[in-house]
Amino acid sequence: MKDYIIKISLCASFLFLITNCAVKKNNAVTDSKKDIPLKDTIVYKEDKSEKKTFFKDSDKETAWVDSIYSKMPLREKVGQLFMVSAYSNKDSVHVNQVSKLIEEYKVGSVIFFQGGPVRQAKLTNLYQSKAKVPLFVGIDAEWGLAMRLDSTYRYPWNMTLGAIQDLKLIEKVGRNMANENKRIGVHFNFAPVLDINTNPKNPIIGNRSFGEDKVNVSEKAIALMNGIQGNGVFCTGKHFPGHGDTATDSHHALPTVNFSKERLDLVELYPYKRMFDEGLVSVMVAHLNIPSLEPIPNLPSSASYNVVTNLLQKELGFDGLIFTDGLAMKGAANFKGPGDLEIAVLLAGNDILLCPENVPVAVQKLEEAYNNNIITEERLAHSVKKILHYKYKAGLNHYKPIDMANIYNDLNPPQNDALHYQLYENAVTVLKNEKEILPIKELDQKIAYIKLGDDTNSTFISTLKKYTEITEVKDTNLDSLNKELKKFDKVIISFHKVNKPWEKQEFTLTEMLWLKEIAKHNKVILDVFAKPYSLLSITDFDDIEGLVVSYQNSDISQVVSAELLFGAIDAKGKLPVSINNSFKVNDGLTTEKLNRLAFTAPENVNMNPAILSKIDAVAQKAIDGKMAPGMQVLVARKGNVIFQKSYGSQTYDNGRKVTNTDLYDVASISKMISTLPNVMQLYDKNKVTLDTKLKDMVPFFAKTNKENIIFKDLLNHYAGLQAWIPFYKATLDSNTNPSEKYYRKTAENGFTTKAADNLYIRNDYHDTIMKIIADSPVSPKIEYKYSDFTFIILKEYLERKTHKKLEDLSKENFYSTLGMNYTLYNPLDKFEKNSIAPTEIDNYFRHQTIQGYVHDMAAAMEGGVAGHAGIFSNAMDVAKMMQLFLQKGNYGGIQYFSPQTFDAFNTCYYKDKGVLRGLGFDKRIGKDGPTCGCVSESSFGHTGFTGNMAWVDPETEIVYVFLSNRTYPEVVNDENKLAKGKIREEIQKIIQEAIIK
């Protein structure tokens, strides 16, 4: 070994002399800072046997390597040293050029750049078929294959991962990357980046680094490596000995690093020493000018024997594969021309020569150097045999072509999103939280939103609006904008820049001015969807109450960040870099987690997305079968919405497509999400008991046949009341048109209660309805009979007891603080008609299309507000109330009623009588009930005549909401195709089947 090292030293010296130190004196750019005094407390493993090994050596491996090497002519040996560039998005000329390099020049490896996964896999099979010894295939996939390939999954940048404290998540990223690499025949992922990005202006590293703290960089890199190499793919740590504190891109020039060897050893080399102990397979050497390591001026580190052999191999004890960085990069190419450069870097101690500029010339000159004993057989064998050893470890001794079937789906499994959610849930970082402005607790305040930056924000704003009412404010004049903002309690400002690692992500001067002035006059939460360095231009954060760094501008980061603002998740991330003197590395505040609905991928709550996807076909079957023109379906589990889709159109003429924010008439679900929770609050305050009599609740019923009905029986539909009465029929004339005795076409004195467009009923007709109910017969046989009268009566009780209207009670007590801003009676007072699904073309009462007015005739006669019907909502809002029930009266940190009250209402009091209902809740799960029969006995919910269902199963923690307008265009003898087709039940069954046991 000693002789080998002496020979290498002599060859390196000889090469330097014969080339007259051929360097270009003026092409280096100095990138340096003052030395930072640091202490290294880590204990490294000097004994090789103590170091971790992912890929064990074996006698069979050695025998295979010796067998292959012994049969290789010089051309094949030299060819093994090269890894050449390949693209899957170029034409046949390029393909032929690469094929020629493999066939004629025997190159041993390819590195793929831009293209697509299927095209790359095809080319890999082609190139492998032309190679005598199977090829190594490498790729830069620092944040997944998407760094180079279209149609593949993009993981967060290293800078984002650097904010995460849970290393197991980083390891999962590595595992996924390895599986994706293996699927398309890749053996080397040129990751992780080990550069410590202590220079914020670094033009080429930046977001590719895990941050500026050496320990954090090391821990994250080790975790990523464990995931990648633990699953059979080789990692390459880069860019040795450290490219993080440079301000020059080595693709264009040779950066100079003017740090002392002590500083380099304590900072830049720290991750490498840690990684070597943990089993890193390979290293990529950068093109850097480092005077403290290499005395020859402007000699690139990749061509420095002092760096590659003395430091990397001898001093640090690294014996894995050593790659050069790309040899066509100007940091190296400006040093020597093709051939001479390859000789220099090989003699420096590198094994694989990456992306050479001219392979034929390089091969020729290497062969000449070998024949002239400049490159000895021992030196050549050292690298070639090392390469062959790793080819054996990669399984290339038994090479198999890539299976071309199903590549796209294999590379893009739905569980990738599940991990992506977890990553951002752990990365998003809160840097300021003055007066606990985060999370936003009070949802009944006025909140404005302003967008900065030039990239998309649609997912962020739509998610914000799922929590509460958000007003987007825009103006081209700053003064006018600030004047408008005076109307609001808080202002959310988000900054969005394109999700590309090398793009500038800075605030413009105008944006900085606006931010400063808006923050000066308002309570501001700033959320940055860009690299943390974008904050460097802000010199004063005093007027910004809340500051959040979300790192990247992706759909999932926008969802997660919105969740954090409203407390659906808590903040866990830590800043991986410093921001001037304002924020230090590892700064990051925790925030309170409120039990509001969050959003995630199904796998994160043990649900199978492939099974849930079957809901699509069932929904389409309903539409095709004319069971409903459109619908909304939502599924939540364990407090997370995991499925929310809209299907079809509002009508069968394929007009406006249903969206998630469209409103539906929820019919009898109104009972459960409006009247019932208000009654539960009064019960919770002991204003009513299970045995309170109706005459005491509503004195109007004293001295009637209903006066002694008790509260419990009323809500159990066990009081002998009639199912319903068609009150409207008594108000029609002989032609079944609204009678002038009871209606007017325009509002006038005594006729201001609106039943539909151009239709106003007598204001006193409510008294008539109540008298008809009071006078109606009671069944002599007490048995279960569902009746709308129960909730019509309860509305009367609530309004008399509280002296407030039901619509005001529901809004004040629940909707405003739950963020149910799409839930209301008489939606046309707030929303455009085209955002509301029509329920019927009425030809028997109101004689018009019913859109934005309640479908139920009795509720319409009450001006759209009734205890049994009248609420319009969407699936998201209904889910909030159902989640409140699931959480036994608590939502968003507010206790609306006690758990004991909920339990009292979710009890079957007459189960022995065959009555499977709670107090206001349907609990029928058998063949006569509305469910699939596959939910638990503790489950509860309600259905609605217009084609709706909302159901909760406490045992599985699942909330299921289905909304439709199945009554459109008309109700024909109540031919309920939706019910007969058991669409809602079939979807519920799919949801249950999707549970991963």
Describe the structure.
The chain has 997 residues and is α/β, with parallel strands linked by helices. The protein contains 34 helices and 32 strands. The strands form eight sheets. It has an eight-stranded parallel sheet with strand order 9-8-6-5-4-3-2-10. It has a six-stranded mixed sheet with strand order 11-16-15-14-12-13, sandwiched between helices. Strands 17-19-18-32-31-30 form a six-stranded mixed sheet, sandwiched between helices. The protein starts with a helix and ends with a helix.
Label this structure with key terms.
six-stranded mixed beta sheet, 32 strands, disordered N terminus, alpha/beta, elongated, 997 residues
Task: Outline the secondary-structure elements.
Elements: H1 2-18, E1 28-31, H2 59-70, H3 74-79, E2 82-86, H4 92-104, E3 109-112, H5 117-130, E4 136-139, H6 158-161, H7 167-183, E5 188-189, H8 214-229, E6 234-240, E7 254-257, H9 261-266, H10 270-277, E8 282-285, H11 305-315, E9 321-324, H12 330-333, H13 340-348, E10 353-354, H14 359-371, H15 377-393, H16 407-411, H17 415-427, E11 429-433, E12 447-453, H18 458-464, E13 470-472, H19 478-485, E14 490-496, H20 509-521, E15 524-529, E16 546-549, H21 555-565, E17 598-599, H22 609-612, H23 615-624, E18 630-637, E19 640-648, E20 664-665, H24 669-684, H25 694-697, H26 711-715, E21 743-744, E22 753-756, E23 759-761, H27 765-775, H28 789-802, H29 806-818, E24 824-825, E25 840-842, E26 848-850, H30 857-861, E27 871-873, H31 875-886, E28 890-891, E29 894-895, H32 899-905, E30 940-944, E31 948-953, E32 958-964, H33 977-980, H34 983-993
Parallel strand pairs: 1-7, 2-3, 2-10, 3-4, 4-5, 5-6, 6-8, 8-9, 12-13, 12-14, 14-15, 15-16, 17-19
Antiparallel strand pairs: 11-16, 18-19, 18-32, 20-27, 21-23, 22-23, 24-27, 25-26, 28-29, 30-31, 31-32
Helix pairs in contact: 1-13, 2-15, 4-5, 7-8, 7-17, 8-10, 13-14, 17-21, 18-21, 19-20, 23-34, 24-28, 24-29, 24-32
